């Protein structure tokens, strides 16, 4: 589940910032980020394990903070680095499917395409 949790985090943050918009469902006024092709790869987490990370009960913290904390803790528990997670994010009320398509890698991207996409966000290999 660790790769799925970390993937959820960067799929959320790469679009409109770390605002949990990737969790929003489509409405009559807005198409969800979930509809973007790159987010097809999040389906396993969304359908089978999301409730383990983000329970359906109302959380006392923004979902955006919970995604960030879950990502940090998952990486750390598996022996990776830990980092400070400033809290206080606001959960979005809007999604942006076109930005998700533009800023996220296709689930079919090769390594070169992935490295280039991460580089646009200031990340290297």
Automatic annotation (TrEMBL):
Gene3D superfamilies, alphabetized: 1.10.520.10, Peroxidase, domain 2
Protein's UniProt name: Plant heme peroxidase family profile domain-containing protein
Compartments reported by the entry: Secreted
Cofactor, free-text remark: Binds 2 calcium ions per subunit.
Amino-acid positions noted as binding Ca(2+) in the UniProt annotation, renumbered to this chain: 12, 15, 17, 19, 21
BP-aspect Gene Ontology terms: hydrogen peroxide catabolic process; response to oxidative stress
Disulphide bond pairs: 13-18
PANTHER family (alphabetical): OS06G0521900 PROTEIN, PEROXIDASE 72-RELATED
Lineage, highest ranks first: Eukaryota, Viridiplantae, Streptophyta, Embryophyta, Tracheophyta
Any single GO CC term annotated in Swiss-Prot or TrEMBL for this entry: extracellular region
Family statement: Belongs to the peroxidase family.
